[in-house]
């Protein structure tokens, strides 16, 4: 039906389990993303969304289950491995270093170099120029690329993380609640960016608590609950209200909504 | 608009033109440079002018260099978010290893020096492995090694010398070794003779220059400082050091090989200690178990004066360079004054306190926290 999902998935996670000691954070989650698709991952707080995408980006090793990347089984030992495979992630905690400049954060782990041999060095000019340009694309005019990230506002910081992932996400882009601190303009900018990179054939995994944002860009929606998938729906097969209910265990929300006068 | 063309490609109405002062304030080594100036001014008023003659300069730069090589290693490690309290003991331990290589086994310097550095790197690696594998603070792990290495040095020296804690005969053993002049004595003697003949530097009555060359440790100190500064500020590896120390988790999630970075830093620091051991053992012709005693603290203090934060992720190799010079100036400078030598210790503590308070302010400024 949807031409995008006809492609073979670029990454396929099969029956992933993750245990932290005696805590079972993921109890068998399957999930895949195809090139050019935005697959939304939804669910309540503590459902296991962040844990799940961290197994995808190499931060956690799954306790059980397999990861197929471009048809081959992959074992990511570190985030560096998954990055080299073309997966870029915006973590919920952003993975930024406050004491370092925006540019140094932007290129952390993937510094452009110039020169060769012992004179191979961090190409600061290029790095600064790219950082400014990418931030501008996201709708934020940085004051200076050598400004410390600690001096940025929460939203600006989030935008740096997004711009960085978009810039490096060659095949898969994972966004863990990327719009939680953003203003209206920057949010629509991020949604537009998701749409743009998707059109370029990149597979996007988008975690959000906002059904409208999910509906705006999502091709498929998977809802997690207490470490398990509640189900996956195609775009057009589900209404925003149904999705909302699914995300938070329908009844309770209906009750809440009643008491709050339908504002949720 | 020429004045406005800073690093920024385009100006933003929301940023005031940064004054030179605020820009300087953001440099981690500023405190140490200010310290050097202050100390210089102090001794210009209180000390015998001989302190600032060429001979006096070499006099205070020599101990500064020996401490500084350690301080630069300590600074890199601190920026990377770790400590090495075994640094001083490592000087004794590496000294013993080097001494044994040269005297007991008669190994030529060409092999003895790389072997000593390799040996130190292995010990540094062990330090690092334990810290990384157990997840314990490096402070406590290396504190254990402070005692272990000191103890091993004593035991090893007695073993190598049949009961003494001093191993002599290094000078005789390296006599004629072509590598010896690179690691001991004074460099460029010819140049200094020429300068003396030209009447540019002070000479003794018989015409030989009072300063016969630059003590090699000073040259090593400068070279190591320049390399460390280049690596830290200009290379991807330097960026990884800052990132690993700033937030190991965030750095690792961003693709920085944090473990490798930290491990390599422990090894580099140990090699700095071995470097000091080699130079001082060759210089004095012997090694003993008290070598490097309490140097770990002085090195860390010099690094802190140089702008390193105790919490990691911020600091400078150049800062540690100047921090060590402050030490040398005060240690030797006091002998040129009527002031009691023991003020040195008071000064040490005071300087540390001021530096920490100052660095804390700077950090708040850089990160914008209030
Ligand atoms: N390192 C860890 N050690 C122990 N438990 C963990 C760890 N990481 C996550 N968990 C647990 O796993 C569960 C899922 O956490 P996770 O962060 O994936 O939730 P989430 O769906 O991203 O929630 P949110 O919407 O609040 O971000 C939680 O109960 C959490 O306490
Ligand atoms: Mg989460």
TrEMBL record, chain A:
UniProt KW Nucleotide-binding keyword: yes
SMART domains the UniProt entry points to: AAA
SUPFAM superfamilies: P-loop containing nucleoside triphosphate hydrolases (SSF52540)
Stored Gene3D superfamilies: P-loop containing nucleotide triphosphate hydrolases
InterPro entries for the chain: AAA+_ATPase, ABC_carbohydrate_import_ATPase, ABC_transporter-like_ATP-bd, P-loop_NTPase
GO terms for MF: ATP binding; ATP hydrolysis activity
UniProt domain ABC transporter: residue ranges: 11-251
One Pfam family hit: ABC_tran
Presence of keyword Secreted: no
Keywords: ATP-binding, Nucleotide-binding
Name of the protein: Monosaccharide ABC transporter ATP-binding protein, CUT2 family
UniProtKB/TrEMBL annotation, chain B:
Protein localization: Cell membrane
CDD domains the UniProt entry points to: TM_PBP1_transp_AraH_like (cd06579)
Keywords recorded for this protein, A-Z: Cell inner membrane, Cell membrane, Membrane, Sugar transport, Transmembrane, Transmembrane helix, Transport
Chief location of this protein within or outside the cell: membrane
GO cellular component, one term: plasma membrane
Function: Part of the binding-protein-dependent transport system for D-xylose. Probably responsible for the translocation of the substrate across the membrane.
Protein name: Xylose transport system permease protein XylH
Organism: Roseivivax lentus
């Amino acid at each position: 039906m949807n031409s995008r999902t006809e492609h073979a998935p670029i990454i396929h996670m099969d029956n992933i389990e993750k245990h932290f000691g005696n805590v079972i954070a993921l109890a068998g989650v399957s999930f895949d993303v195809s090139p050019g698709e935005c697959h939304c991952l939804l669910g309540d707080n503590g459902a296991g969304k962040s844990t799940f995408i961290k197994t995808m980006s190499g931060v956690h090793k799954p306790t059980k289950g397999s990861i197929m990347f471009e048809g081959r089984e992959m074992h990511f030992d570190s985030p560096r491995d998954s990055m080299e495979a073309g997966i870029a992630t915006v973590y919920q905690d952003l993975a930024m270093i406050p004491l370092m400049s925006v540019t140094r954060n932007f290129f952390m782990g993937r510094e452009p170099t110039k020169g060769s041999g012992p004179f191979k060095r961090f190409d600061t000019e290029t790095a600064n120029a790219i950082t400014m340009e990418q931030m501008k694309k996201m709708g934020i005019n940085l004051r200076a690329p050598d400004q410390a990230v600690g001096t940025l506002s929460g939203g600006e910081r989030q935008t740096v993380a997004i711009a960085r992932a978009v810039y490096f996400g060659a095949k898969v882009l994972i966004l863990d609640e990327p719009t939680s601190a953003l203003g209206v303009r920057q949010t629509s900018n991020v949604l537009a960016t998701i749409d743009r990179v998707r059109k370029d054939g990149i597979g996007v995994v988008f975690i959000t608590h906002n059904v409208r944002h999910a509906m705006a860009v999502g091709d498929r929606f998977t809802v997690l609950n207490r470490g398990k998938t509640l189900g996956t729906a195609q775009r057009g097969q589900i209404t925003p209200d149904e999705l909302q209910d699914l995300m938070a265990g329908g009844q309770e929300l209906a009750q809440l909504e009643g008491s709050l006068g339908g504002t949720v | 608009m020429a004045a406005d063309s800073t690093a920024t490609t385009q100006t933003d109405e929301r940023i005031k033109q940064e004054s030179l002062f605020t820009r300087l304030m953001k440099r981690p080594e500023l405190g140490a440079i200010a310290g050097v100036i202050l100390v210089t001014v102090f001794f210009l008023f209180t000390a015998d002018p001989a302190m600032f003659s060429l001979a006096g300069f070499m006099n205070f730069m020599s101990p500064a260099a020996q401490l500084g090589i350690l301080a630069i290693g300590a600074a890199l490690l601190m920026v990377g978010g770790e400590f090495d309290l075994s640094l001083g003991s490592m000087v004794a331990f590496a000294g013993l290893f080097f001494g044994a290589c040269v005297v007991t086994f008669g190994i030529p310097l060409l092999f003895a020096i790389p072997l000593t550095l390799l040996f130190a790197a292995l010990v540094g690696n062990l330090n690092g492995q334990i810290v990384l594998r157990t997840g314990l603070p490096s402070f406590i792990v290396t504190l254990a090694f402070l005692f272990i290495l000191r103890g091993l040095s004593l035991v090893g020296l007695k073993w190598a010398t049949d009961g003494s804690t001093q191993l002599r005969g290094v000078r005789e053993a390296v006599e004629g070794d072509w590598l010896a002049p690179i690691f001991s004595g004074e460099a460029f003697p010819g140049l200094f003779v020429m300068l003396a003949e030209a009447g540019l530097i002070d000479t003794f009555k018989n015409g030989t220059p009072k300063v016969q060359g630059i003590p090699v440790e000073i040259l090593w100190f400068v070279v190591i400082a320049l390399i460390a500064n280049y690596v830290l500020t200009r290379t991807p590896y330097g960026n990884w050091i800052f990132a690993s120390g700033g937030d190991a988790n965030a750095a690792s999630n961003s693709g920085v090989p944090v473990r490798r970075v930290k491990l390599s830093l422990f090894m580099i620091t140990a090699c700095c200690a071995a470097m000091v051991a080699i130079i001082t053992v060759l210089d004095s012709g012997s090694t003993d178990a008290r070598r490097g005693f309490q140097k770990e603290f002085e090195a860390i203090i010099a690094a802190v004066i140089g702008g390193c934060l105790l919490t990691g992720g911020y600091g400078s190799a150049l800062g540690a360079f100047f921090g060590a010079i402050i030490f040398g100036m005060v240690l030797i400078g006091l002998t040129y004054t009527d002031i009691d030598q023991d003020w040195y210790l008071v000064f040490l503590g005071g300087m540390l306190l001021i530096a920490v308070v100052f660095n804390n302010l700077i950090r708040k400024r850089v990160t914008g926290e209030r």
